[in-house]
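TL;DR need structure tokens for one chain.
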Amino acid sequence: MENKISVVQGNPDNHTGNRCSDQFTPNESKNPPVLSGIVSPLIKWYRENKRILPWRDQNNAYYTWVSEIMLQQTRVEAVKPYFIRFITELPDVAALASCPEKKLMKLWEGLGYYNRVRNMQAAACTVVEEYGGKLPESYEKLVSLKGIGSYTAGAIASIAYGIPVPAVDGNVLRVVSRITESREDIMKQSVRRKMEQTLKEIMPSDCPGDFNQALMELGAVICVPNGQPKCQECPVQKICRAHLHDTTEDIPVKAPKKARKIENRTVLVIQDGERTAIQKRPDKGLLAGLYELPNVKGILSAEEAVKAVEKMNLEPLHIEELEPAKHIFSHIEWRMTGYRIRVSSLETNRNSKLIFADKKQSDRQYAIPAAFGAYVKYMKEETR
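>> reply
TL;DR here they are.
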């Protein structure tokens, strides 16, 4: 995909977020001794080693916002092409606010957690109506927008506007917990708020965006969540108490998550040779308003699957069992059985809930969530 993103015009040296000297001046009041020493080496390391990312160093609050929302629950490398496509189609807040829902869902298809982009559009409408289409240069106003929490507001405020506020995500929670050798449960909101306040006290006033990004970057590439942290490459290893005491594997502390609910489902890939039957999900609940392959709760036998298709007023001609699949949501796990069923003709169907999409339509118009990814590939093939 061609990258059509252009850097916002203007002299970046005039932007408060980029006016960073070689000397970093954190606030001196109540500085925690351990963390006070990380500012200078961390920022120096970041500037020399930071990854090149399409939203980084763009001096654009909208780009920062979009990237941070996309990066929730999604890896950086996976986000890159989605970000470029999204920004190319919707280059500013006004374009996002006015984007038709079907197009918006299609642009987000594959990223999952679709409420994120719905909240973004709701916030974009507010920004257009109340702030003239420009994200406000205020942490308090940013955090009041739908879908923007303390972390995202802190990222936008510090990176795009040079406002000295922290941005504490999972990477930062892990990094700071290890540096201070804290054994507090990072899943508690009280611990997150305490860390935000601690970081605010050492935040360099001249380059808060670099400092926040340095903490995030360290957690993403050095102080990693899974596997052994790369302590020998860490710019603050001599300060890190967990490294000094060999406790990095024990920190951070997380309370165990509740076990996910397991739900069995049977997915039906119903085709007439050219088109595939899909349907729209309810406007509320899981995967609200998106399109899906017809499916039912439980595990159906081939005979039961044929009868289910017949109840849709269709005439099954051939059934093929497909590979099992699973998809994990935050609190639920789908374990899926699949069947590919050829029918005589979809045109005779009188089921108003079904849509008969050809291959081009499914690619262009209908956003089908990744939960059905194992079976969507059959929409692009001919039936036998």
